[in-house]
Amino acid sequence: MNKKIQIFGKKIKISHILLVIIMLMIAFVMIAPFLWVFSASLRASYSEATALPPKWLPPAFSKWNLEYYKKLFIGELPFFGFMKNSFKMSSIITVGMVIHGAIAGYAYAKFNFRGKNLMFGLMMVAMMVPVQVTIVALYKIMNILGVINTSWAVTLPSIFGAMCPGLAGAFGIFMMRQFFISIPKELNDAAAIDGAGPIRTFFSIMLPMARSTLASLAILVFTFSWNDYFTTFIMINDTNKLSLPVGILSIRQPYVKGNEFAAVVLSIVPVLIVFIIGQKWIVKSMTHVGVKG
C-alpha cells in the first residue's frame, strides 16, 4: 500500500489513490439523490422522470422542461406560502434554541449547584430519545394550551428545549457548554474583580467570544427545523399553515404528479446557501466541542 506510482509526473502512494476512490464513491452516494431529483424536475413527463434505471444527469439544455417550476412561480401551487411558513417557524426555533442553549450551556460550564451533574446526565440521555417517543405528551400539552393547528404548536416546545426536531435542546446546551468550558476560569475571576456580575460577564464577555459557536449552532438548528416533517405533520392540519416538507407532499395529491420534483429542488436552495455561508463557523466551533481548557 505504501508503494508509489507516477501520475502526471508526480509520485503518489497507492493508499492515497484508494482513499480518494473511496471518498468519491461516498460522495456520489450522498450527491446522487440531489442529482436525480434535479434531473427529474427538468423531464418532459412524470413517467420519464421516474423511469428505471434512474437518469442521474439532466437532459440537454435545449430539452429542459420548466413547466413544473413555472407552476410554482406563477402561484398555481401554494409553494411559496409553505416556504414562508417554514422560514417563520425555523427562524423562531433557531432564535429560541440559540438563546436557550447559550444561557443553559454557560450555567452548566461556569456555575456549581446541587444536582448539576445529574441534571446534565439526564439531559444527555434526552439526546438519545427521538421526538416520536415524546410527541403524544407534547401534543396533549399543546392542546391544553390551545395552540394546536398553529405555528406555535411547533415552535413553542422548541424554544424551551423540548424538541428541535429529533435532537432536542440538549445538543445546543452540550455544544455551548463545551465552548464555555474551554474559556479559562481566570477570565471570569478578572471580570468579577472589575465589578462585573455573572449576567454582565455573560453578555459583555462570553457571548462575543462565542460568536462562531453561536453561528454554527444557529445554522444546524435552522437546517434541522427547516427539514422537519414529523412535528408539523402531527401538530398542524390547516394546509395554509403547513411547513415546506409537509406542504410538498400535500401538493402531490390534488395536482398533477411531478411538481414535487421542482419543489424539492427549490426547497434545498435556502439551506444550501445558509450552509455554504456558515460552514467555516461550523468547522471552527467543532474544534471546541470535546476540548476542555
What does this structure look like?
Strands 1-2 form a two-stranded antiparallel sheet. Helices cover 67% and strands 3% of the residues. The relative contact order is 0.13. The protein has helices at residues 14-41, 46-49, 67-73, 79-110, 116-126, 131-145, 152-159, 170-181, 185-193, 198-209, 211-226, 230-235, 244-252, 259-286, and strands at 4-7, 10-13. It folds into two domains: 4-65, no CATH class; 79-286, MetI-like (MetI-like fold, Orthogonal Bundle), CATH 1.10.3720.10. A hairpin with a 2-residue loop joins β1 and β2. α8 (170-181) runs antiparallel to α11 (211-226). With 293 residues, the chain is mainly α.
Quick recap:
The protein is mainly alpha-helical.
